[in-house]
Every structure is written in structure tokens, then in C-alpha cells.
Amino acid sequence: MLSERRLEVLRAIVQDYVGTEEPVGSKALTERHHLGVSPATVRNDMAALEEEGFIAQPHTSAGRIPTDKGYRLFVDRLAGVKPLSSPERRAIQNFLDDAVDLDDVVARTVRLLAQLTRQVAVVQYPSLTRSTVRHVELLSLAPARLMLVVITDTGRVEQRHVDCPAPFGETSLADLRARLNSRVAGRRFSDVPLLVQDLPESFEQEDRGTVSSVLATLLETLVEETEERLMIGGTANLTRFGHDFPLVIRPVLEALEEQVVLLKLLGEAKDSGMTVRIGHENAHEGLNSTSVVSVGYGSGGEAVAKLGVVGPTRMDYPGTMGAVRAVARYVGQILAES
Amino acid sequence: MLSERRLEVLRAIVQDYVGTEEPVGSKALTERHHLGVSPATVRNDMAALEEEGFIAQPHTSAGRIPTDKGYRLFVDRLAGVKPLSSPERRAIQNFLDDAVDLDDVVARTVRLLAQLTRQVAVVQYPSLTRSTVRHVELLSLAPARLMLVVITDTGRVEQRHVDCPAPFGETSLADLRARLNSRVAGRRFSDVPLLVQDLPESFEQEDRGTVSSVLATLLETLVEETEERLMIGGTANLTRFGHDFPLVIRPVLEALEEQVVLLKLLGEAKDSGMTVRIGHENAHEGLNSTSVVSVGYGSGGEAVAKLGVVGPTRMDYPGTMGAVRAVARYVGQILAES
DNA sequence: TCCTGGCACTCACCGGTCGTGAGTGCCAGC
DNA sequence: GCTGGCACTCACGACCGGTGAGTGCCAGGA
């Protein structure tokens, strides 16, 4: 088992390395942190920490840098979550309060996260499946062509065309619109299929085809939009990544462009509480030299989507975690209000 | 005036430099291109071209590289637009045909452009001001709360809440909906303000307040959405930019994050035909080492928005221009069909 | 007048050598 | 179990000379 002081040494190494980006040696450590022991003692501790795999040396006769395992221990046992200062909190709130619609909320959130953490920010749009239907609207575009609009409680709007097998009168349209809304308004998207399945039967023979088409399109919208969208920002922060450039950031940029990869990444994170994935803990190879800090957010108590940041494993974990958590809270509030 | 052969030499220099990314010397030039003259002659021509500012040497006793002015001459007088191969054309069409909605069209276009040109792609969403209104829908959410939905001919949907000064009956709602649509459906967004200004007067006194609120919101949507959105992709291609990394791509990434900058960039381009801005011709400082190739696209004969790519000044202009033009055409077709 | 071959010159690049210093491991003593 | 001392390692930067691609210039020929 690692003694208390060795953990302290590890913490000091992580902090110094995060600050300077350079391998940290025993002498510098004792000078910057008052550990109360000599460099020689620290050297012994370092040897032990290296033995256990928490730190490593890039070359013989260089200082040590933390390994993924070292960061993991640091995050789990040594680091708290650094709360934001109150001016920061106020700035967040003001900035988000000005948002005019859902797109704007998401866009502002991305900017905010990227600026606060000086890293790449990723924000998932509130998911359709977990949110509820506010309203379904049907419009007639042409005699045998309808438009279906679905509005969710998070302010998202989806729209689809429906080609009808037969002309559909205004009366029937109003009827269908009313019945559809009375069944699904306020209900969760995931419950919709069950709620509408017997709807065609209650219509005249001649209209059933059209009603079925509308329902099919509605359900299809549901399925398609389960592939969620997301927005990223702050990629310019990647340039502060390290010295050995292109090789590191190339795969990261590629991964960030693959929405599928990112969605999977966020999907793997815990639904509640904050998740930190460090280096090789990330399944995707391109992200092996990055850490991902993510957390769910939502309008009520329940998380409807996730947001987070992607940065070098050598990041300021307490600060990043604090910023991510705070932003998620405020976004949740904003969504609840609107 | 530059002789025919000197122009030929410039063309050869641009082509070789684009291919190899290395300064090109007189000997290599005569070997790769059958110019019919000796290296010594080419050297004289090069000296003249340098004198005129079309090429430069990074150091004494190195080959020459084209300057921005050299690329400009190349693009204007020496390079054609390389048409895509027919398999490429088919691939584009197939890929775009599968798009399900406007977001998807834009997203696919970005991917396509980025892949074809191996550069950063930028696609502007079809603009509301230049497109027409397909339908306006009004829904009652609560006794004194309405939702306004605007649907454009390019498939874009915008939605806003309206708080009414007084309760608004279903009959009045249907009435307003009908009158609103009869006036604006099929009209350009920019014409809407004039078309609706006298609408409140034709309603009962008690409803006028609400009608005015609805119209105000409608016009506000118009103004807000004149700030257009855009989508970018292919940023990973920036890693192929050059050897001297962070210093070059940092400002480019920053510029790309500023939608305002990009919109201005696209806005400065000609409305019809293709625009190529080379290096320092770009107003934004961060893009001084890049070239931007852009073109308008639209569903009819008229351009409703622009798309383009951002890449190093040392890019394959004929190929890039060909790809950009072809993609713009197909996107226009797709939009016209939907 | 324009092109060509020849020639001397420049200078970035590459590989090797060497001194410096931060950092280490080990050990004997407190 | 901590400490000071000591020998060792090795990345890094500076220096240096050889190599070769490339240049500018010039005199001679079509």
C-alpha cells in the first residue's frame, strides 16, 4: 500500500506537470512543495510510484510524468472538484440567459465550455427519446401532400413530408390533428408507438391509408432522430496540446468529426454524476492521448443529454470538472425555464 | 510583358510546387516538363518572374515558390477548372440523394466537399431572406400563448412562442392563420413586412393586440435569422498543411470557429460565379496563409447561399474549383427537388 | 536578339563530436 | 526510515566540415 506521503508526492507531480508540461524531478518537487523531506527521500518514493505504474520517465535521467493510471488515482482520491468563482458563475448565467432558442442555447454552451476550460467542448442536443412531445402539427401542402411537424418540450422542432395514398380533406385533417394531439401531447417520445397504434381503425375506410402514412412518418422521425446531434467547439485549443504536433492532434480532429464516435463516447459515460475517462480508458484509438470529462444535464431532475470536454490527459482535472459541472447545471436551469 | 514561355514556366512551377511541397529548381523543371529549353534559359525566366513578384526564393540558393501574386496569375490565366470524373459525379449524386432533411443535406455536403478536396469545407445554410415562405402555422399552446412556425421552401423550419395580451379564440386563430398564409405563402421573406402591415386593422378591436404580437414575432424571426448559420468539416485536413505547424493552423482554427468571420468571408465573394481569394487577399489576418474557393448555390437559377473550401495557398486550384462547382450544382438540384 | 553550356559561389542540410547539466540510483551513516 | 554524497546517464544545444542542389553571370553560337 502507498503511504500518505507517497500519495502526496504523486499529487505534487501531477500538479507540477500539469502546470509546466515538463517532466518533474525530485529537487524541483521539494523546492516547490514543502513536503518536509529531502530530494533523496522523494527519489525513493518516486521509484516506488514508478514500480506501481503511476508515473514513468520519458528517458533515463529525466524527470517523471504521470501515467494514465497515475491520473486515475489522482482524480479518484487526490483531487476535489474546484468550484467556480462567483463572478464566473454570474458570467455563465448572464451569457446563457441571453439565448433565444435551442440552437442558441447549445451554441452558447459550447463556447462557454471551451472558453472556461480552454479545451474542446462537446454538447449533445437534448434527446428526443427521453423528452416529451409538446405538440404535433399537420399541414396540407397539396391535395395529397402533408407536412408533419413535431415540437418537443426542449424546443426542438422536427418536420417531415408525408405523401398520401389518397386526397385527404380539411375536416379529416383537423380531426386527425386533434386526436393525435390528445393522445401524445405531454407524453414521452418512447411511449408514442403504443399510444397511436389503434388510431387508423377509428377513421373512415378511405382515410386509413393516409392516417397510417402519417403515423409511419411520425415513428420514423422518432427512430431517425434517436441518432442524436451534437455541437463541438474550441478546436483551436488543440494547438496548445503539446510540442509533437500533427501526430497527436490529427486523430483527435478526425475523431471529433465523426459524430458517431463522439455520441458513443458520451453514451458510454454514466447517466448521472460526472464521468472522467483518461487516455487509454477511451475506447476510440484516436483519443488515447486525451481525457474526456462528461456529465448529463437536463431540464428536470432527469438527464436528457450530455456535455463535456476533450483535452490532453495532462489537464487541470479539478478546474475542468468544476467548470463542466457548473455549466451543466445552468444549462439545465435554462432549459427548464423555456 | 511576360512572354508565353515565361507564363509556361510559372505554370510548371505552380504545378510542381503544389505536388511536391518543395521549392522547385531550374533543372528539375526542365526534366519534368518538356519546355524545349535548357535550365539556364529557365533560370533567366525565373529571374524575370521573381523581378515581377510572381515567385520568390525562401533562401538564396534554394528553388522558387510561387507568391500570392503568382497563384493569382495562375488561377486567372493559366489554370482551367478540372471537371470531375463521371464516377465521382455519380458518387456525389448518390450520396446527396440519400439525405432526409435540410440538416442532412448540409451535413452531407460538408463531408463530400471535405473528402473530395481534402480540405476544410464550409457550407452556408440556405438563407431565409432570399428564400420564400412555404407556410406559416399558428398553434394554441395555452389560452394566451401561441406558437408560430415558419416553413421555408428550402425545408427550414423556425419556431417561436408568442405571448398574447388577451385570450385568442380558435375561430380567430383559424382566421388569422388563413389570412396570413394567403398573403405570404410563396412570397420572399424580404417582402413579408410590406405584405402584412395592414393586417391588424381588419380584425376586431379585442384581437388586434394579439395579431400585432404575432406579426412582431414573425418579423423578428426574419431579422434574427438573417444572421445565417453554417456548417464546417474536414478540419483534420489542416494537419496536412505544412511542416511548421501550430503557428499556421492556430489562427485558421480560430477563424473557423468565428462564424461571423466566415460569413463575412463568404459574403464578400461574388454572388454568381466562383470566387477565389488567395492568401493576403483574405481580409481576415488568420487566413493570410490560406486560399478560399467559394461559389453560390441555390434551388432555382438564383443563389440562396454559398459554399466553399479553405485550404493552403498551395492547393490544387483546378481540381478544387472543379469539385466545388460540381458539388454546388448537385446541392442546388437536390434542394429544387425536395 | 535570344539561347546555351560552363563555371564559381552560396548556403541549407546532414551527420558526427563534445561539453553541460538536470536528473537518477545506490550506499553508508545518522 | 531519512539524509547527504557520489558516480553515472543521457537529452540537448553548439560547433563544424562535407555535400549537393541551386543560383547568377558570362562568353560564345544560332
UniProtKB/TrEMBL annotation, chains A, B:
InterPro entries: DeoR_HTH, GAF-like_dom_sf, HrcA, HrcA_C, WH-like_DNA-bd_sf, WH_DNA-bd_sf, WHTH_transcript_rep_HrcA_IDD. One of its GO terms (biological process) is negative regulation of DNA-templated transcription. Residues 34-62 form the HTH deoR-type domain. Residues 103-321 form the Heat-inducible transcription repressor HrcA C-terminal domain. It holds the Pfam family HTH_DeoR. SUPFAM superfamilies: GAF domain-like, Winged helix' DNA-binding domain. One of its GO terms (molecular function) is DNA binding. Keywords: Repressor, Stress response, Transcription, Transcription regulation. Negative regulator of class I heat shock genes (grpE-dnaK-dnaJ and groELS operons). Prevents heat-shock induction of these operons. Belongs to the HrcA family. HAMAP family: HrcA. PANTHER family: HEAT-INDUCIBLE TRANSCRIPTION REPRESSOR HRCA. This is Heat-inducible transcription repressor HrcA. The gene is hrcA.
